[in-house]
Amino acid sequence: MLSACVAPARNLEELIIQDSTYLDPVSMVPYSGRVIRHFPGEDSLLQLEATLRGGTWEGELTVYHESGRVRYQGEMSGGAQCGGWIENENATEPETVYQAITEDLESLVIYPECPDG
Questions:
Q1: Are 31 and 11 in contact (CB under 8 A)?
Q2: Containing domain of residue 17, as a range?
Q3: Which residues of 75-96 are buried (b: 16+ CB within 10 A; e: fewer)?
Q4: Measured at the alpha carbon of residue 104, what is the angle toward residues 100 and 110, in degrees to the nearest 5?
């Protein structure tokens, strides 16, 4: 049986920001890898999970409400939003599936197409 090793996510607060680039504080090299951030004072509540490549946002980025519901979710390329995004301001889960689908459609925002790669 083969198992893939996945590097643990790094806390975004540990990195240094210089000219909009996230750097490893020891090497001062642009950071590449998974990052997370928790709500202040709430180590068990995830606020953000994403990936940085060369210190810049790349790939899927998800930001949560304190309720755990997705607030923003979509793809990043070279630090810019691309493709379809959910931008949901409502922190409360809808009561019905119909309401959930309606809210998801109403919160959908389309950015320029993501480049292939």
A1: no
A2: 10-110
A3: bbbeeebbeebbebeeeeeeee
A4: 175
Return the CA Rg of the chain. 16
Amino acid at 15: L
Residue 79 to residue 16: CA distance in whole angstroms: 16
22 within domain boundaries: yes
106 domain residue, yes or no? yes
pLDDT tens sequence across 40-79 = 998 889 999 999 999 999 999 999 999 999 999 999 999 9
Asked whether residue 29 is domain-assigned, the answer is yes
Residue 5 lies in a domain: no
The position carrying tokens 């755990």 is: 68
Whether the Cβ atoms of residue 47 and residue 70 lie closer than 8 Å to each other? no
Structure tokens at 69: 């519901």
